[in-house]
Amino acid sequence: MYQITPEDRQYVDEFRKTPVGRHSPGLQRILNLFRGEPMAGKYVLVCTKPHREWMLGQFTGVRGEKIRMTNQSFTSLDEAEWYVFKQRWKRHTGEDLPD
User: Fold this and answer.
1) Domain boundaries, the chain
2) How many CA atoms lie within 13 A of 77 on its CB side?
3) pTM of the complete model
4) CA torsion sign, 51 to 56 to 61 to 64?
5) How confident is the model at residue 72 (pLDDT cuts 50, 70, 90)?
6) Torsion of Cα atoms, 31 then 37 then 41 then 46, to 10°
């Protein structure tokens, strides 16, 4: 399985600028790692108001169980995606990314 290296830090700005859409192969490799995590505790964005509001949830890892919703909400999909990216980056590297 791929592990993030210090050289991968260059892809953080790319994601920040374009969280949704086509990505370079290097960034896509990181996203594949993040998105391939085990389901238990994995973050998910739930659209609560179409095109206006997203809430952060986490999968339980048990098929059929409801997503555990948090109190974190977003009015921008890009900001929501950035938040999840930062959480996953921290989990894999131990490094906090700035807002």
Assistant:
1) 6-93
2) 11
3) 0.92
4) negative
5) very high
6) 40
